[in-house]
Design brief:
Bound molecules: nicotinamide-adenine-dinucleotide
Largest sheet: 7 strands, parallel
Order of helices and strands: EHEEHEHHEHEEHEEEHEEHEEHH
Shape: globular
CATH topology of the largest domain: Rossmann fold
Number of domains: 2
Number of helices: 10
Strand content: 15-25%
Structural class: alpha/beta
């Protein structure tokens, strides 16, 4: 079997490192002993202030799909590993699909090319459950045929293929991760759309009732950001090359149950406000997480209660 990869002492490139998950990943990489962390970020959604102070980090402001390729090559020169998280996300894809394709497809190809030329030994790409494309049915499993139904999902599936293509061309290791609904502190950087968790916790902090659309039975797979980052580091460190792993809790939580737990965690005495049913009515989006457990020994460790408490504390501090 191939040797495991070592973050300790390495130079890593993290695209999207000023964003929500990326900024937590940067802290985790520093804690694992990364010597130098180069963050490539357009700063459209993330911000350098999200990065913990005192880490060995350089931020390169670069808009993937639009920026100067020579700048990318310079940023990636001599790097050992690439974690590619930068992306225009699902909600943006409704507003500006052309930008999403350019950033997530052309930008991904440009970054992967620069990282390979720069000498990286492994590529890690963060894809999304939106690559599956379905809203209901049994837990989504890596072996099923993906059928993305959004421009964002299409761009993410394309990113997976590009990652494998570049890795094979350059004979290096690679791994693709499909994150489910990641939540936690710094989840909402100030632009774009708020998740149901942030919206509901903000309402609770303001003494208002959270809103539940429709019957509240629509269910999602929530994973705490610390767990998603642990899975990401393990996937990079593993000697296993080539693979696709769901990163989720494997648990379907209905919006009704989620909101009830948020109310309990907040300690507020409020009810729930009924909102109209929306496109999520009847949906269930949960990941099968057996493959990542079997191959990487990973299981999400943070309970929803612990994770929501940490998210609430962060919102209280930033309010
Ligand atoms: N948060 C989730 O629940 C979730 C679920 C599935 C997949 N993902 C994926 O995880 C990754 C990180 O997501 P996040 O939630 O931290 O998002 P985020 O928006 O907080 O972070 C993304 C970062 O990428 C940067 N960025 C966006 N477009 C860029 C471009 N063209 N060039 C350079 N930088 C750019 C943004 O400025 C931001 O700092 C994304 O690839 C996303 O598709 C996230």
């Amino acid at each position: 079997m191939a040797e495991p990869h070592r973050i300790e002492g390495s130079t890593v490139v993290v695209s999207g490192g000023c964003g929500f998950i990326g900024s937590h990943l940067v802290s985790a990489l520093a804690a694992r002993g990364a010597r130098r962390i180069v963050v490539i970020d357009s700063l459209r959604y993330g911000k350098p202030e999200n990065l913990e102070a005192g880490l060995p980090v350089e931020v390169v402001k670069h808009d993937l799909g639009f920026g100067d390729l020579a700048e990318l090559e310079r940023a990636c020169a001599g790097a050992d590993y690439l974690f590619h998280l930068a992306a225009e996300k699902h909600n943006q894809s409704k507003d500006d699909p052309t930008r999403v394709l350019r950033a997530n497809v052309e930008g991904t190809a440009a970054l992967l090319g620069a990282a390979c030329h720069g000498g990286v030994k492994k590529l890690l790409f963060t894809s999304s459950l939106y690559a599956y494309g379905r809203l209901s049915g049994p837990p989504m499993v890596e072996t099923e045929h993906p059928h993305p139904s959004t421009v964002y999902g299409i761009s993410k599936l394309t990113g997976e293929h590009l990652t494998e293509f570049f890795a094979r061309q350059h004979r290096i290791d690679w791994v693709n991760l499909r994150y489910f609904f990641v939540y936690g502190p710094r989840q909402f950087a100030g632009t774009g759309y708020k998740s149901v968790i942030v919206k509901s916790l903000e309402r609770l902090l303001a003494g208002q009732s959270p809103i539940v659309n429709g019957d509240g039975q629509q269910a999602l797979d929530y994973i705490y950001v610390g767990d998603a980052v642990e899975a990401t580091c393990r996937a990079l460190e593993s000697p296993i090359s080539g693979g696709l792993y769901n990163v989720g809790s494997g648990v379907a939580t209905s919006v009704r149950d989620l909101v009830a737990l948020m109310i309990r965690v907040s300690g507020k005495v409020v009810g729930v406000e009924a909102g109209p049913a929306d496109f999520t009515a009847g949906s269930c989006r949960v990941g099968n997480v057996e493959e990542i457990h079997a191959r990487l020994g990973f299981r999400a460790a943070t309970s929803l209660e612990q994770g929501l408490t940490a998210t609430l504390r962060w919102l209280e501090q930033t309010a």
